[in-house]
Amino acid sequence: MKLLSPVKVGAFTLRNRVVMASMARARSDINRAPTDMVAQYYAQRAGAGLIVTEASSISIMSQSRPHASAIFADNHVDGFAKVAARVHAAGGIIFQQIYHLGRKADPTRMPGGAPVLAPSAIAANGTINGANGPCPFGLPRAIETDEIPGIVEEFRKAAMNVKRAGMDGVEVHGASCYLIDQFLRSGTNQRTDRYGGSAQNRARFMLEVVDAVVSVMGKDCVGIKLAPHAMGDGIFDANPVETFGTAAEELGKRGIAYITLVEGPGERHRPDDKVPALMPVFRRAFGGALIVNGGYGLETAEDVIASGKADLVSFAIPFISNPDLVERFRLGTPLQPGDEATFHSGGAKGYIDYPTLAEAR
Ligand SMILES: Cc1cc2nc3c(=O)[nH]c(=O)nc-3n(C[C@H](O)[C@H](O)[C@H](O)COP(=O)(O)O)c2cc1C
Questions:
Q1: Closest CA to 280 of 237, 309, 251
Q2: Contact assessment for residue 357 and residue 324, using Cβ atoms and an 8 Å cutoff
Q3: What is the CA radius of gyration of the chain?
Q4: b/e per residue, 181-201, with b = 16+ CB within 10 A?
Q5: For 314, phi and psi rounded to 5 degrees?
Q6: The domain that contains 316 carries what CATH number?
Q7: Number of independent structural domains in the chain
Q8: Residue 139 CA: distances (Å) to CA of 103, 224, 239
Q9: Residue nearest to atom 25 of ligand 1 (CA)
Q10: Of 2, 102, 103, 263, which cross-links 179 as Cys (Cβ 3.0–4.6 Å)?
Q11: How far does the centroid of ligand 1 lie from the alpha carbon of residue 262, in Å?
């Protein structure tokens, strides 16, 4: 099985091509620091070739749901240091995902009632679970041009914190309609300064963030996740091939370790008339490892790697209820179903209590 063969990604030789995708599970403490239970959860999944942690906010302006993690303060570093240590003790390799929510931050939890931030003053469609129940996403304040270096600096400091925590690398979260994605796509970026307009200009913020993170970690220890098919909150792009082709090419010039491209057989991750297949575009434009994600199972993952279209596959939901996913793939054992009610519920149930095959026996 090629999926289970080793592969070089940046500075690392991974034992297999099965990546645990980033998943926010809302199990940090109320001050957003991972607890011992979080460290145990990741250690249970150390059989993955690479683990990517849950998204961690880089700024107080990136307010997410309670118990979601952050990486801008010392308590966050202490919490993630426990995670890194437990995963390393179990033989795993772990990158930390860092992000800024931009217009998708929780408007009811913003410091001093400040508006959420975005490239342009365009609100996300839909609602968010705010402090007093569901509420619409806030109307953002467009970030001033001279504020951008400060936000890039927050990413750099977050990378310093990731390094202090002893993580192996950083995954920059450029997906899921968050701040970097909002800058990239023409529907959410209507700026007239050097961060808006052409695909090159819209990629500038992402590239400044990547350069800042590389300055801390080294290019071999940096990856990024992009999701051109995500359109959940009304985000869109007029020319996805040009936008994401430019992004992939510029990332290639920087020589970072990998891109995770969310494109796969899953319902919300498939190419369609609005956004065509971008895997070949990424393959041509980016020389580093290509990880694909989005509804893959053993067979589809094996196929995409055997075809040479991608190098690794990342799995999110299958890892929730199958801590020993790699072993199950190796043996061809059916996967255990997960309980969606516990994805973000807090507590040990549905988090650290899914048995491995050995434990089930
Ligand atoms: C509970 C849950 C939390 C998620 N949190 C994140 C996150 O923090 N960062 C991220 O990039 N993607 C996040 N995702 C998306 C997954 O990483 C992945 O892209 C998506 O689930 C598709 O992969 P899959 O079909 O293997 O589950 C999350 C998904 C789930 C189910």
A1: 309
A2: yes
A3: 19
A4: bbbbbbebbebeeebbeebeb
A5: -105, 145
A6: 3.20.20.70
A7: 1
A8: 8, 27, 25
A9: 295
A10: 102
A11: 10
Contact 240, 278 (CB under 8 A): yes
Domain that holds residue 199: 2-360
Please check whether residue 57 is in contact with residue 32, taking contact to mean a CB–CB distance below 8 angstroms.
yes
Q: Which helix (H) or strand (E) holds 20?
A: strand 18-20
Active site residue 354: no
152-211 per-position pLDDT tens digit: 999 999 999 999 999 999 999 999 999 999 999 999 999 999 999 999 999 999 999 999
Q: What angle do CA 114, 212, 179 make, to 5 degrees?
A: 35
Contact residues of ligand 1, CB 6 A cut-off:
21-24, 54-55, 97, 173, 175-176, 225, 262, 266, 293-296, 315-318, 343
